[in-house]
Write a structure and sequence with these properties.
This protein has about 120 residues and is mainly beta. The protein has strands at about 1-5, 10, 15-25, 30-40, 45-50, 55-60, 65-70, 75-80, 90-100, 105-110, 115. Helices cover about 0% and strands about 60% of the residues. Strands 2, 4, 5, 6, 9, 10 and 11 form a seven-stranded mixed β-sheet that branches. Strands 1-3-8-7 form a four-stranded antiparallel β-sheet, with no helix packed on it.
Length: about 120
């Protein structure tokens, strides 16, 4: 499975961005999908997660501002980010935990997309 991320960029405080993460490959089904973010010098932190049944989890710092969603038919995950703050500046990574038909449960990381929030 390969992941393709898109949607990062530079935005002013209070602005919005939408990140996408598309999973492609053969013989797999997705268990859950997660967005992480990382600032240089700090550990990667979970931002939002969506499991196969549609349940979602969010970091307290983004609750009410970010919305994670998923298009099951396209194996694509989205992160709608509203009311962005400078402290949201980071590189955002998608992570997909999936079940391969012969190899069992695996996970894969996207290449990351940079989000910068600045006046």
């Amino acid at each position: 499975v390969q992941l393709t991320e898109s949607g990062g960029g530079l935005v002013q405080p209070g602005g919005s961005l939408r990140l996408s993460c598309a999973a492609s490959g053969e013989s797999f089904s997705i268990n859950f999908m997660t967005w992480y973010r990382q600032i240089p010098g700090k550990s990667r932190e979970l931002v939002a997660q969506i499991i196969s049944g549609g349940s979602t989890n969010y970091a307290d710092s983004v609750k009410g501002r970010f919305t994670i969603s998923r298009d099951n038919a396209e194996n694509t995950m989205y992160l709608e980010m509203n009311n962005l703050k400078p402290e949201d500046t980071a590189k955002y990574y998608c992570n997909v935990n999936y079940r391969h038909s012969t190899m069992g449960n695996l996970e894969v990381w996207g290449q990351g997309t940079l989000v910068a929030v600045s006046p």
